[in-house]
Amino acid sequence: MKKIHIYLIAIVLIIIMVAVLMFAAGSLTPSTSLVSYDNKPVSASFLKMLVIPNNVSSQVGMGVAPKSNVEILNATPIAINGKPEILYIGAEFCPFCAAQRWPLLIALMRFGNFTGVKYMTSSATDYAPSTPTFTFYNSTYTSPYISFVAVEQTTNTYKTLQQPNSTQAYLFSKYDPNGNIPFILFANRTVWGNADYDPLSVLGGKNWTDIATLLHNSSSVQSLAIVGTANLMTAQICSIDNNSPARVCDQPYIRNLMGYVK
Fold first, then answer.
1. Where are the domains of the chain?
2. How many CB atoms lie within 10 A of CB 221?
3. N or C: which end of the chain has fewer CB within 10 A?
4. Structure confidence by residue, pLDDT tens digits, 57-113
5. Cα gap 174→29, rounded to integer Å
6. Is-above-0.85 flag for pTM?
7. 258 and 235 in contact (C-beta within 8 Å)?
């Protein structure tokens, strides 16, 4: 009987150790409550999973990203410190913002680096409840090529977080008079409204590690939706920052998408 107890204790200890190691690596088990990860820092190892190899991105191309979401503008370019400004306005509760943050994060990391990004889930009471995503609130983005400004208006429980300043509010109301989110303005060159894919069918029932792993399979639903949109966003950024850096903007699959965002 004592031996059985020892074996049981050993098994429990092994399970605990495996869980701790998986958490440290940024992994999640299927039974993990997604909302328990809200506002926890995203590890550097997980962000590396969002660096999609060129061979995968090339196979995806535009995927299923609907180019109809891109409205081309004829307006004076906007910049911060001489770098084209990308303005994102969203909210943590919003399931469509949750969907659009995935490709936006992937695209932006091709041009710079994030610190302070945290895990987040969308509202538990909205469409596609508790969709796994991230929050840009209190994050920092650095790039030699572009500027990125994020305004997360409310938490996923509808508490106020940030409000656009007067200039941001003017641009938001000018190009999106109905106040729909997510709203992404690429240097006054194009405006992107709504999400480019359905959060429930692409992200529902999965955790962050599940999704990030599937992004490396060019034929997966997740890769066709998220990487396809990220590629289109990348082509957009290349078109506003003088095609820099060459290692990103000279990729044939990015060049092929330029015509959709000009």
1. 1-30, 32-260
2. 15
3. N
4. 999 999 997 766 788 897 899 999 999 999 999 999 999 999 999 999 999 999 999
5. 44
6. yes
7. yes
